[in-house]
Every structure is written in structure tokens, then in C-alpha cells.
């Protein structure tokens, strides 16, 4: 098995090199994502300890269809303009939730530049649903 892998890498060194570079770029991109990624359990723990506030950055229509209990809705296109509303929560971790966990990192990074402690829900609301956790409408 290992001998076959080494033989493949030797015969296709350009392909293997491209794979290694792309893997390194993917890891670097994930590492620079804003804030830490929280599991659904970690999010629940922070909120239960009153150490975190959930901000759902999905469009208002999606938020109304179902959201995490106690979450505030500030759509991502309005987050920068409405960051002042979050000042009262500056002592807590701001937990951003999007649809699939793809855009929350960028916005968490912006909040961190403004002095907030920010995190994102890994996998977004879809991971919350996958874990069969409750949503309210």
C-alpha cells in the first residue's frame, strides 16, 4: 500500500505537488477565518452561562422561518451599519450564525477589528438543524 503510494507520488510528482500546494492554501484560508469556530454544544454552553449572544446574519425571511432561541437578527449586509447595537454586548462573545458557516468568519473578523470577541457557529444553522436542536419561528 505505502509502496504504491510512493510509486504514484514519484510518477506523478507535478500532480502531487499541486495537491500539496492547494491543501496548504486551504488550511491557510481556514486558519485566517475570523474568530473561533464553535460546535453546537459550545454555543449552547456559552449562551447558557450568559457569556455569549447569538447574532443570526441570515436574511430576515430566513430568520423568520426558524432561528436559535434568543438570537438577534442583523442581516449580513446591514451588520457594519448596525454594529453600534452590539455595544451593550461587548463583554460577551458575539456568536455569528449564517446558513452554512461560509460567510460568518468574514464578519466575525470585522467585529474583532472593532474590539468585540467574536466566534462563528461551525456549519451555520444547517449544523444546528442536523443536530436536531430546537428552532423557534
From TrEMBL:
Keyword Transmembrane helix in annotation: yes
Top-rank lineage group of the source organism: Bacteria
Transmembrane segments: 12-29
Alphabetical list of Pfam families matching this protein: Rhodanese (PF00581)
Rhodanese domain mapped to chain residues: 48-137
Cited SMART domains: RHOD (SM00450)
Keywords on record: Membrane, Transmembrane, Transmembrane helix
PROSITE patterns: RHODANESE_3 (PS50206)
Name recorded for this polypeptide: Rhodanese domain-containing protein
Native species: Pseudomonas fluorescens
